[in-house]
Amino acid sequence: MQIKEYRTQFIEILSSIYGKDEAESFFYLILKEKQQLSRVDLALRPDLVFTAEELLVWNSILEQLKLEVPIQYLLGKTSFYGLDFEVNENVLIPRPETEELVDWIIQYQKLKDESQKIKILDIGTGSGCIAISLAKNIPNAQVFALDVSEKALATAQKNAELNNVNITFIHQSILETEDLGQQFDIIVSNPPYVRNLEKVEIKKNVLDYEPHLALFVEDNDALIFYKKIAELALKNLTSPGQLYFEINQYLGKEMVDLLERMNFKNVELRKDIYGNDRIMKADFR
Ligand code: GLN
Asked: How far is the CA of 49 from the centre of ligand 1 (A)?
């Protein structure tokens, strides 16, 4: 079958779910990944055809896209802060909001003495996107990454190798940790923060396919991870040290109150690209 003809069908079928632009962008993403062909290649060679084998692969991807399986899981990869990451159903797909958190840390560290070795801990690392992009961009940092999920850690480990960085991985439940056993200059976390009551707002591609372990918290204890991590930060941050969080957009005020009550200084809340309260920094002295 001619690729060009297949393209028309593919986009038509998926347009009803995703809209034409996104359907088209999926087509070219898969074309690049599976056939190593660009949009220009196809325009220059309109007679290109799929083999029977290739067609099977494309049809299987198409079926899964119809079920709204995220394209990143189907291709097994995504990009974050300009780096490539493997992803699968055991880890959350890295989000642009999280890139802003990483950028905040990197820019802040650039203002500091870069000859001084520092230690950074990422709690709930998932794919490893925060830890790895920090390790890549803060040369004087020794980075540690913790997760309760062994499968997530295996993915993060692969991603560290893929990106050529050295990270110390820790398999541990943060909720069951009383002391981290060492001091860190920076603790960062994007823990689960979506309340069950917010499930109605969550899109099918997220709700049906991304790991709930990484997403959801109980309505009546939505800040459970933040409370625990902030308590540990009081014991295990150097003085001065920084705590960074990605947070639930509806709980900005509660988060500022929590950290100020616990005596963190310069508690700062920033909005994400969509204008929602999303990322925080606080100093410990
Ligand atoms: N931002 C993610 C979402 O909206 C949630 C991430 C998290 O719970 N840490 O799907």
From this structure: 40
Residue 193 in contact with ligand 1 by CB distance below 6 A: yes
Amino acid 18 reads: Y
Strand-strand pairing, 237-246 and 167-171: unpaired
Contact (Cβ atoms closer than 8 angstroms) between residue 17 and residue 204: no
The pLDDT confidence band at residue 114, using thresholds 50, 70 and 90, is confident
93 CA to centre of ligand 1 in angstroms: 9
Mean pLDDT confidence for 235-249: 97
- When comparing pLDDT for 113 and 85, which is higher? 85
Distance CA 223, CA 86 (A): 29
Q: Is ligand 1 within 6 A of the CB of residue 194?
A: yes
> The tokens of 138 are what?
């803060």
Using CA positions, which residue lies closest to atom 2 of ligand 1? 215
Q: Which strands, in side-by-side order, build the sheet including 141-147?
A: 167-171, 141-147, 118-123, 184-189, 237-246, 277-284, 265-271
Is a pLDDT exceeding 90 seen at residue 162? Answer: yes
Give the C-alpha separation, 117 to 239, whole Å: 15
H helix intervals, 67-210:
71-75, 96-110, 129-137, 150-162, 204-207
* pTM across the whole model: 0.95
| Alpha carbon distance 66, 39 (integer Å) | 23
Q: Strand, coil or helix: what is 165?
A: coil
What is the chain's mean pLDDT, rounded? 97
